[in-house]
Amino acid sequence: MTLSTALAEAEARIAEPSPGALLRRRIFGHGGFLFGAIVVGLVLATALLAPLLAPHDPYAQDLTRRVVNPIWHADGTWRNPLGTDQLGRDYLSRLIYGARISLLIGVATMAISGAIGSALGVAAGYFGGRVDMAITFLITTRLAMPVVLVALAVVALAGGSLKVVILVLGFLLWDRFAVVTRSATMQVRNLDYIDAARAAGCSDLRVLASEILPNILNPLIVVATLEMAHAILLEAALSFLGLGVQPPLPSWGLMISEAKEYMFFSPWLIAVPGAALFLLVLAVNLLGDGVRDIAAPENRN
Predict the structure, then answer these.
(1) Which domains does the chain have, with CATH numbers?
(2) Average confidence score pLDDT of the chain
(3) 106-127 pLDDT, tens digit each
(4) 3-state class of 80 per DSSP?
(5) Residues 97, 152: contact at Cβ < 8 Å?
(6) Is the four-CA dihedral 262, 268, 271, 276 of positive or negative sign?
(7) Burial code of 23-51, b = ≥16 C-beta within 10 A, e = fewer?
(8) Which of 74, 55, 75, 54 is nearest to 65 (CA)?
(9) In a 3-state reduction of DSSP, which class is residue 84?
(10) CB 145 within 8 A of CB 89
């Protein structure tokens, strides 16, 4: 190797950015990921710090101050920056505590449905044969059931509550996880590293846990964020119909439902929780898409 060649290789190594620099470049160059991460982070911080941030008790009623206008109205005051609802409860405090309900339902539903669907999908894609046929039948049966109607029927029979809503949605939203993980597992089950793991004497459980699952995480991330956003919207729909989270819990969907009688006279009662719900769902979806793009195999060095 000549001196000039060695110098050229050394300069190339120096000029080549480190993996950490590449990762930072991908993160800060992805606008959707940054927006989603900032909004979700703010909502999460708001939910965790709700007792410190809320200016009033979200359950305290003051009938002498019913439907007080927010601060941007001429008669609005900083005592209630977002006004009060039909029972005189501070709207900002209820909005802050409502972030807890939405995030709890979204994360808990995603965890339950993800565990069920991923286990079924990976088993179907890896073992094939009769296992695949049986699980495909379950998936087809589930897809034939309309989620909203089934959720309405079950919640109406069991009674609306936070726990019931989480369990019902968790046991209804696993089909996408199953379909995606089944397809992804079928694509990787016959690759060389899977054959090498089997040849090394690894059990099926070891192969599934250490070889299959880590290599299908990207599509799972996208499905998880979609289902989290889906669960938040479904909870809002159920609460709007009076079959979801029950009063006096400050659910955003319930806040919209309680304000529908005032939509022509005080539209901000619907607009405020509606905007919060829209931003959270949008941010969760953008965050999932961004994580998928950043963690894609073609971006790893």
Answers:
(1) 22-60+87-299 (1.10.3720.10)
(2) 85
(3) 999 999 999 999 999 999 998 8
(4) coil
(5) no
(6) negative
(7) beebeeebebbebbbebbeebeebbeebe
(8) 75
(9) strand
(10) no
